[in-house]
Amino acid sequence: MTQSAPTGRRRWGRFARHYVEMVIAMFAGMTVLGALLSAAGLAFSHDRQPELAYLLMAFTMSVGMAVWMRYRGHGWAPTLEMCAAMFVPVVPLFPLLWLGLVDGGSLMLIAHVAMFPLMLAAMLRRRDEYAGCAA
To answer: Is 64 helix (H, G, I), strand (E, B) or coil?
Structure first.
């Protein structure tokens, strides 16, 4: 029996479910790996060391998401694109931080808000892959 590709509403349902799964994996990585790194003494203050705090958090989110994506059968290119969505927001934000135009808390808030549409953009770029991958 040949399984046909999902169509219409079902494809977008899979796409949406996959997006939610990756957000959950991202937060799971941030929570679990972040706690382990913190217990090992590798935690940074958002107030005193916002650059390091953000980069470490982006790393932990990326690990969780990458593990889930590889489990789901995605190749390295889409996995790395999705991980890039965790790091790209700081490209314009770090200079604003260094100029004193935003503080560490604002950097975290803006970057987190930016991650979600960046993840969506990466997924839309490969919508057939994200809408049609196996459940």
So the answer is: helix
At 1, the pLDDT band (50, 70, 90 cuts) reads very low
- Rounded-to-10 torsion of CA 70, 29, 105, 91: -20
Listed in sequence order, the residues at least 6 apart from 116 whose beta carbon sits closer than 8 Å to its beta carbon are: 23
H helices of the chain, in order, are 8-39, 50-71, 76-87, 90-98, 104-125, 127-132
Judged against a pLDDT cut of 70, whether residue 6 lies above it is answered with no
**Which pLDDT score, from 0 to 100, does residue 135 have?**
43
Task: Assess contact for 68 and 21: CB atoms under 8 A.
Answer: yes
- Kindly list the distances between the CA atom of residue 113 and the CA atoms of 12, 85, 117, in Å, as whole numbers in the listed order: 23, 11, 8
For the purposes of burial, counting CB atoms within 10 Å of the CB of 55, is it exposed (0-12), middle (13-18) or buried (19 or more)?
middle
Phi, psi of 5 (to 5 degrees): -70, 145
